[in-house]
Automatic annotation (TrEMBL):
It holds the Pfam family Metallophos. GO terms for cellular component: membrane. This is Metallophosphoesterase. PANTHER family: BLL8164 PROTEIN, UDP-2,3-DIACYLGLUCOSAMINE HYDROLASE-RELATED. The keyword Cell membrane applies. GO terms for biological process: lipid A biosynthetic process. InterPro entries: Calcineurin-like_PHP, LpxH-like, Metallo-depent_PP-like. GO terms for molecular function: metal ion binding; UDP-2,3-diacylglucosamine hydrolase activity. It comes from Paraglaciecola polaris LMG 21857. Keywords: Cell inner membrane, Cell membrane, Manganese, Membrane, Metal-binding. Residues 12-212 form the Calcineurin-like phosphoesterase domain.
Length: 272
């Protein structure tokens, strides 16, 4: 299709995090589709854009991941302001805080002012790990359990694709019903809000925990933009200042995109 005929929604601001390029479970095709259907004044890349942890174990960089990275870099040359806030999975880049590479700004934290004058602290969220984690053993067990959830989610959705059903995050559903996970999410939210209170801002935008949410807590706004591992979500600000979450798998053409992604995956497996 000629790009001139592709409808594009315009956003004053978009926040994306936890893309995890280089990870098996990265939904790069969905993200590329979202970016191709959007025009963005300011783009915040809120950490874990490249999964250096996963690539240190096994290097994986399919063409779709390369296309996403190229698209993100090209946006800064096409008039969008792009700010990258490294997280824990791309931690080696945190040392470049305050430096601009090409047209991309790098920062650990940033204050964003909305169209209606609200001040929002933007950060990945790994800054609060010590306040959330229950100790090294529980943290290790949590990581292994999450890897298992993603494995189950991957095969579950392959089966759904074979039955012509759309993508659905089984991992997100299971995680929301695990008591320990809910407790950690609550502690994380309050750690974020306490930072916002101490800084005297109106709210916080973060990622890190792969749990998209908008909430009012202690008179402050809590925004978590989610991820592109489970939820394929973005936090967006319209020109009027309205902020809302978008789940790209719920768009009208998501079913076709999901089936295409599964077909490609099966083709790559056969080729290997």
């Amino acid at each position: 299709m000629n790009n001139a005929f592709v409808y594009r929604a315009h956003y004053r601001t978009v926040w994306l995090s936890d893309i995890h390029l280089g990870n098996t479970d990265c939904k790069a095709e969905y993200l590329l589709d979202f970016l191709n259907h959007s025009t963005i004044d300011t783009l915040y890349l809120v950490g874990d854009i490249i999964d250096m942890w996963a690539m240190s174990k096994q290097f994986r960089w399919p063409e779709s991941h390369n296309q996403v990275l190229h698209k993100l870099m090209s946006l800064s040359k096409e008039g969008s302001r792009v700010i990258f806030l490294p997280g824990n999975h791309d931690a080696p880049l945190q040392k470049y805080d305050g430096i601009t590479f090409g047209e991309i700004e790098i920062a650990r934290e940033m204050i964003h002012t909305t169209a209606d004058g609200k001040k929002l602290l933007v950060l990945h969220g790994d800054q609060f790990d010590q306040a959330v984690c229950f100790g090294p053993l529980q943290s290790w067990i949590g990581d292994k359990a999450y890897d298992l959830l993603l494995f189950i989610n991957r095969w579950y959705n392959r089966a759904r694709a074979m039955l012509k059903f759309p993508y659905w995050s089984l991992a997100g559903y299971l995680k929301s019903h695990i008591k320990g996970a809910n407790k950690a999410i609550t502690r994380y939210k309050y750690a974020c809000i306490n930072r916002a209170i101490n800084m005297g801002v109106d709210g916080v935008v973060c990622g890190h925990i792969h749990h998209p949410e908008v909430a009012d807590i202690s008179g402050k706004k809590y925004y978590n933009d989610g991820d592109w591992i489970e939820n394929c979500s973005a936090l967006t600000e319209l020109p009027c200042g309205e902020i809302k979450l978008i789940y790209w798998t719920q768009t009208s053409h998501a079913n076709n995109l999901f089936n295409l992604r599964m077909s490609k995956a099966r083709g790559q497996k056969k080729a290997a």
